[in-house]
Amino acid sequence: MRTLRQALLAIIVFAVLLLIFFVIYAAVRNRPQDLPWTRLDLGQPIGAFTGRKLAGLTDNFAECRALLQQAGVRYTMLPTVKSGEKCGYADGLRFAPGGTQQIEFSPGRLGVSCPVAAGLAMWEWNILQPAAQKHFGARVERIEHLGSYSCRRLYGRSAGDWSEHATADAIDVAGFRLSDGTHVTVLGDWAGGGPKAAFLREVRTGACKLFSTVLSPDYNAAHRDHLHLDQAGRGEMGWRACR
User: Which ranges carry the Extensin-like C-terminal domain (predicted)?
Assistant: First the structure.
C-alpha cells in the first residue's frame, strides 16, 4: 500500500511540474495556444493543444461557427442530413468564396462537418502553403478530393464500426494543383522521390497536428491513393492516429 501511495504521489508531482512548465513556456513565448484551457483561435499558429481543441468542436457547432467567422472564413451552412441510425450530420457547411480560406476543392461544392472545415483552413494557412512555397516556390490553388459524407462502415464493410465519413467528419484528399501548374497526386507521387514526394509527406505529417486521424499510403493499401483526414469525436484528450 505504501508503494502505491508513493507511486500516486510521484504521478501527481510530475503532473503539477508539467503543468507549471507549460504555463511558463507559454507565457515566456507568448503562445496561449500551447495551453489546454485557452480558447482556440484558428488565426494563431498551431499550438501544442490545437489539434485536441479542434477535435473538441465536434460537439459544439455554435463555437465552431464562431471561430470560423472570427478567422475570416466565409461559409454557408448545409441542411441537416439524417439517414438511418448512424448516418447524417447537423453541423455541415461549405466554404464560400471571398474569405481567408482561398483554396478551391475539386469536385466543387464540398460539404464537410464544421470541425473538418476548421482543420482544413488551418492546414491551408500553416502547412499546405508553406510546404508548397518551400518545395515548388508556388501556392496550392486546388485540393482534389474523393469526398466527405458517405453513409458507410469502415472500408465499406457490411458490419463493424461506422466510418467518420458517415457523419461528414472526414475527407479523403487525393491530390493538389499548384499556381505554377504543378500537379501532385498521392497515387502517382507518394512512392517516388524528389519534391513531390517530400511535399506529400510534409503535408501529411503537418495534418497530424490538426486532425484526430490521418492515414496515408504508409498505413495500408486501402489508402494508396489518398490522405484520410478526420475529426473523430474522441474528446479533447482522446487518442490520435498518424500513419
Answer: 63-243
